[in-house]
Amino acid sequence: MNSNGKYLCLDWGQKRIGIAISDDTKRFAFPRGAILNNLDTFKNILDIIQNEKVVRIIIGYPLNFKSEETHSTRGVEVFTKRLINFLKKYKLEIPVVFFDERLTSNLAKYNIINSDIKKSKRRKKELTDSAAAQIILSDYIRKIENITK
What we know:
The chain is of the alpha/beta class. It has a single domain (6-148), classed as Nucleotidyltransferase, domain 5 (2-Layer Sandwich), CATH 3.30.420.140. 45% of the residues lie in helices and 23% in strands. The chain has five helices and five strands. It has a five-stranded mixed sheet, with helices on both faces. Helix 3 (104-113) crosses helix 5 (125-148). The protein is globular.
């Protein structure tokens, strides 16, 4: 495992992409807001990769309870292919992996509702997107830790 960088987690959505980043030790995940899913998306992701010294990208992969694709699965796959091709243009060969994101948005909403965050701020969708990305990344980190033990 490369110890000289961080993990970046992306929770893709048609309007926004939730962002979470690990610490340098890759043990903790932190929400980092959301970016709009628009013409600047890949440039914004590139900026994050360069500023945070990202060594791996984890992308939430939507499946239903029967482990079948959902209406969002194809969008995530297309986005991921475009991201990989974009990164190749910049000679960046960062591993990109999918990770199961079942129930992360619901869990994120639940956590936000039960937090001390003011109601006006809780309504902001990017908060949920970023919290979902944090949950995905935390789950990924725990899985990796269990595999390496």
